[in-house]
Design a protein that fits this description.
The protein has 199 residues and is an alpha+beta fold. It is built from six helices and nine strands.
């Protein structure tokens, strides 16, 4: 999918932010994914959910199904992911998600990832580690974005400068974009009964 260039990024651009709930590492359980639909960084319009397997291989498929099955689909302009991995090492393929939904994807993390450490962990634990690692490599270059604090992004289907502007526009109450902050709080609250940790 070619990068989308936004002629004008509106303050109320519809963004879907996705994060996972707390889970038991290395378990044979499902983990909740929560998506929050925001207008910019201010108004919550909806909540989507799905489940993936801890350390499984279904994050991409489940995210695509959740997005394409949503009544918000036609309004969404950007999908934001809190990292590339969910439920441990269930690695999302952002290029496939963008291609199959028709919506650009922005991955946001607070810290620059230790890619060699991730590669070693995958190689040590998974027979299909090369496929998982390939998805991480295919996510492309990691870019630094100065917002309220420094964050790092990877993108699919969107120009890097537009992605950085959308990250800054939607970061209104903390160091990360509001759609991701809200998704984290909701996912944590559903799983634990109360939201915990800083989002």
């Amino acid at each position: 999918m070619e990068n989308r260039n936004f002629r004008q990024i509106k303050s109320e651009i519809r963004i879907l932010g996705i994060d996972d709930a707390p889970f038991t590492p290395r378990s044979d359980e499902d983990v909740l994914l929560v998506g929050t639909v925001f207008r910019g960084g201010h108004w919550l319009d909806g909540v989507l959910t799905t489940k993936i397997r801890v350390d499984g291989d279904d994050a991409t498929e489940k995210i695509v199904e959740m997005v394409n099955g949503s009544r918000h689909l036609n309004q969404l302009r950007v999908i934001m992911l809190d990292g590339l991995t969910f439920g441990g090492f269930n690695v999302a393929d952002i290029n496939e998600i963008s291609s199959r939904t028709g919506i650009p994807v922005i991955v946001v993390v607070r810290k620059y990832p230790d890619l060699e450490r991730i590669r070693r962990a995958l190689k040590h634990r998974f027979p299909d580690w090369k496929k998982r690692w390939q998805r991480i490599e295919d996510a492309g270059e990691i870019h630094r974005v100065e917002s309220t604090e420094t964050v790092y992004i990877q993108t699919a289907g969107i120009d890097q400068e537009d992605a950085a502007e959308i990250v800054r526009l939607s970061t209104t109450r903390s160091s990360i974009p509001e759609p991701l902050r809200a998704a984290h709080l909701i996912a944590s609250g559903v799983k634990l009964g109360e939201s915990r940790g800083s989002a």
